Amino acid sequence: MDNTQPSFLDASGKYTGIRGWIFSTDHKRIGILYLISMMTFFLTGVVLGLLMRLELIAPGPTIMSAQTYNAAFTVHGVIMIFLFIIPGIPAVFGNFFLPIHIGAKDVFFPRLNLLSWWLFITGGVLAVVSLFAGGGPVDTGWTFYAPYSIRTGTDVSLAVFAAFVIGCSSILTGVNFITTIHRLRAPGMDFFRMPLFSWSLYATGWIQILATPVIGITLLLVICERFFGVGFFDPLKGGDPLLFQHLFWIYSHPAVYVMIIPAMGVVSEIIPVFSQKNVFGYKTIAYSSLAIAFIGFFVWGHHMFTSGISDTSRVFFSVITFIVAVPSGLKVFNWVATLYKGSIELVSPFLYTLSFIFLFSLGGLLGLVNGALATNIHIHDTYFIVGHFHYVMFGGTAIAFFGGLHYWFPKMFGKNYNERRAVIAWVVLFIGFNLLYFPMLVLGWEGMPRRYYDYLPEFQTGNVISTVGSWILVSGLILMLSNLVSALIKGEKAEMNPWDGTTLEWTISSPPPHHNFEKIPVIEHGPYEFRRGAGGGGKK
């Protein structure tokens, strides 16, 4: 399509300069704002994680006190979970590409979209401020478990309120995406003509709307408990700490799928392009997103197998945990079937995607070990859980995020990055990732508890390997980010369709024009049938 509009980067509005960005209601600019702020929070969390691993390189005190270590792993968890992993892909790529994928000019509530970003930034700033105010950094862990969270003298109330504000941002984003999909699809685009990434955002939006209010109310109850001593969760006042765990995980386990379903959507977009085939089992992948979202509401109890709930409920939650693996397995099967006999091109976005399939599948299988009652009792609250969690979340969501960033970078910024450096960064990152997290699985299986500041001497070898892995992983991150920043500054101009993609975003210029399309397109076929090479020139 020929466009006469300026790109969204060059378009002028009511404001100019920095105000033209932070007060913009353009979904693409808001996506870029999320990208910048999330990468800032992500790098802060990486530094904290690096310091924690350095502390654990040897038994006994190394570079920080026990109290500082408790604060470090809490803030690391809060930042990574609430400010990067949960909102990451929907807020960045969802904001940028959802309207384009469905042939719309913007999201349905543009001003609400901007408010979501401001709430996200406000919550992030409050979380950082909680490090320096009053009683010191919160030391509860990112789960804020009662009754410790209602008794500790650290700044739990401010940190909890920060998470509450971020939750409000998440709800507004979910409302906006679902309304946009229902009301702004281009003429002719029914649900089964939407790209699979849009399907993943649709399923995610429902979880955000239905589950997030539960954690919001729970966090408000914690604040009431701390200020007014109401007695919701304090056993000394007749409260029930188990109630907190139920409410927390009723949100937080579906939130795991808020983190991973959009990542699956990104992977579903990348695989067909670099295997030169249409995606295998489109409807199966689409329905499985909804199935994961639905079943995900019923598995929270597997976090509480050792908390004292009844044997019957433990069996129930264990069985449901196994069932939720079925739609996830269907997705992996369809991705691999798409690759079968495909014309594979091993470029950086695709390498990150293959990494996702390997790391997520391994993390998912470890999740079944965790979901089985007998083995869960053995590994509960050990380093095995830390390793499993990072294989699923970092190896799944963050790796898919990096894959999506490399895939859509030329479209978002109109610049090409250095492909050779991108591949080298991927190799370093992949090696560092496995050196960092695989030893944790062994340490946990051998009995090393998680969240502990110190450990027995027999666990030192595994911890040294893990710490060295963290250095290699960070080196890979530095290589990757420096390559992308360098491309922004002096990269060559990208073509409209450098990957020979077949979805709607590749039919408009790079970077996209201000209003996305000259005319709203009329859709007459499926989402992956926009002609290859339209306006492009083949892969570079």
In short:
By secondary structure, the chain is mainly α. It has helices at 19-22, 27-55, 66-85, 88-101, 110-129, 148-151, 156-183, 196-228, 241-275, 282-295, 311-339, 348-371, 373-379, 383-413, 419-445, 460-490. It has 16 helices and no strands.
Characterize the biggest β-sheet. Answer: none
**What's the alpha carbon Rg, rounded to whole Å?**
23 Å
Mean pLDDT: 91
Strand content: under 5%
Q: Low-confidence segments, ≥5 residues, pLDDT <50?
A: 533-540
Q: What structural category do the secondary elements indicate?
A: mainly alpha
How many helical elements? 16
Helix content: 55-70%
- Let me know the number of strands: 0
Distance between the termini: 21 Å
Mass-distribution shape: globular
Give, in order, the helices and strands.
HHHHHHHHHHHHHHHH
Question: Which key features would you list for this structure?
Answer:
540 residues; mainly alpha; 65% helix; globular
Word description of this protein:
By secondary structure, this protein is an all-alpha fold. It contains 16 helices and no strands. Helix 5 packs antiparallel against helix 7. The chain is globular.
